[in-house]
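REVIEWER CHECKLIST
Item 1: Sequence provided? yes
Item 2: Single chain? yes
Item 3: Sequence as submitted:
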Amino acid sequence: MASTNTAPPPTSGAVDQTTAINTIRTLAMDAVQKANSGHPGTPMAMAPVGYTLWRDFLRYDPQTPDWPNRDRFVLSIGHASMLLYALLHLSGVEEIGPDGGKTGKPAVSLDDIREFRQLGSKTPGHPEYRMTTGVETTTGPLGQGVANAVGMAIAGRSLAARFNRPDFTLFDYDVYALCGDGDMMEGISSEAASMAGHLRLSNLCWIYDSNHITIEGGTSLAFDEDVGKRFEAYGWAVIHVDDANDTGALAKAFETFRATDDRPTMIIVHSVIGWGSPRAGSEKAHGEPLGEDNIRATKRAYGWPEDASFLVPEGVAQDLNAAMKANGGKARAEWESLFERYRAQFPELAEELDHLRQGKIASDWAQDIPEFPADAKGLASRESGGKVINAIAPHVPLLIGGAADLSPSTKTNLTFEGAGSLEADTPGGRNMHFGIREHAMGAIANGMALSYVRSYTATFLVFADYMRAPIRLAAIMELPTTFVFTHDSIGVGEDGPTHQPIEHLATLRAIPGLVTIRPADANEVAEAWKVAMESSNAPTALIFSRQALPTLDRTRFAAASGLKRGAYVLDDTGQGDPQVILIATGSEVSLAIAAHKELASQGVRSRVVSMPSWELFEKQDEAYRHSVLPPGVRARIAIEQAGRLGWDRYVGLDGATVTMSTFGASAPLAKLQAKFGFTVDNVVKVATDLIEKAR
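Item 4: Structure as written out by the authors:
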């Protein structure tokens, strides 16, 4: 195979692949150099891979980049973003605006590439979903992108099971993810790859750039395993391409992937970072601009004009655009024609798909959500949560999810007839078994959410630490992923400090864009699930208890619908402003009510505020917030079996908290409540002390 490194740019006539590949390389060099920041090496080395895949194999229409059955390309090595930006520019992908319509602009123009890594540009340092058309997911933390790709492939199977009918194949897309040594080192990729192998996701292809360089130097410093053998053990087909410049071998590898129908495929591409050729390499090229002298020398080696910057030779973009239209554009047109015939034969399914594309769900989804009667014994919110999700799911066919091997404890298993398990042979199942893989679970769920599925996950709250990155990325991408966390406090009891979350609520609340809800009883649980299902552009964390919570008598207390406003007055003396406000969440609301009753018997005017969600409360106007928490009432107590951090914003300098300042302990719940002050006597004492201090 001839080298793809050197060839002069043509001035007219047919475009050869070497010129096209070197256009990608030089755009990457020039953009990184102008920004004086970024990673030019991987885009240069992987240019032949990207070009071959996009031109000849990726079923993707540049004119309709949101076509539902398009192949997905995930750049898991997000630091190599210039490879993706160059491909988006050269292929002529058209921009889709926030309203879902075309803007008439290119997704990435040459001016956008010149503004690489600059404020407000469409070419940030790592690809950002929603910011740049054609970016299928936000990638930055290594391993997240490949795990997202697993979720996209699972979603493709689920969509096919839901919508495909004989003679009507609406969904059969493939997912390609370009990854590197860093992805292979991160544990999340192992979790995700293991699950992909178990599910035999033959629509999934990871392309591994094995270049043996990381930031600190050669990978031999910390990484010398045989990745191919590892993936064979996971049940993947493994293909080696010895030279990243061998486009013929790359094409054969992609053809082999397409013909493989019983397992996912890993294509291991061997390259030398920085040049795309075995003849030379540079650690500097990985994470720094090359410098003007090196750029000139490299362009000279390519037969490129040394003084030209951001040069796109005539015909290069036109050729790539035409090739992709001939492949993906033709397939998209055929799909749309098929879909119109499908609509005539299956109008309800067609309407459902229309709604999915618009981010909507069926109008009757909430009709069977139960209203829970008052019950002093009550239900654990994990129990009521299970009842609510099973009332919703039959009306939302693509509400799919599961737990990290904990569904008997989290109560998130879908139990209605026909729900089934999502396995290799039953891709239409609704219950996912993620195994003990919290990190990959979150990222896979995000990939599903990026592909029309209303995904949810479940585990214990203390294990939120294992999935912090995907939760954060769901918030950055504004995905409606629902994260269910149970066993939410020292109420876990005998399991002890390792399983008793303390700081976790504060860390979830610290994530911008994540709506965290800790409901107080079964009816607040129902309202919390409504908030999650009505969200189309934000993830939700639902925080549920292991222990039973009394179901409040809503003829006596305020309606649970107040949850939608984040906080509401649950009970009051009705005699003007209270002397003290008791603010509580979750299981501590019933404690606040009991303390309120005792204070009333002592002639103290108190108010109970249920505050299940800080984020929802902060979205209310000032008048409402002041009606719940009057500024003139400075005696306030926050009651929550979690850390104090953050409560100062609501209790102020004159207030107090009954919260956790240490880790928990292993003991029955009643003894833990007494030890850590979650008793009526202690709350009443703190309240009366505050009132006395105010005097």
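Item 5: Key structural point noted by reviewer: DSSP finds 25 helices and 22 strands in the chain.
Item 6: Recommendation: ____
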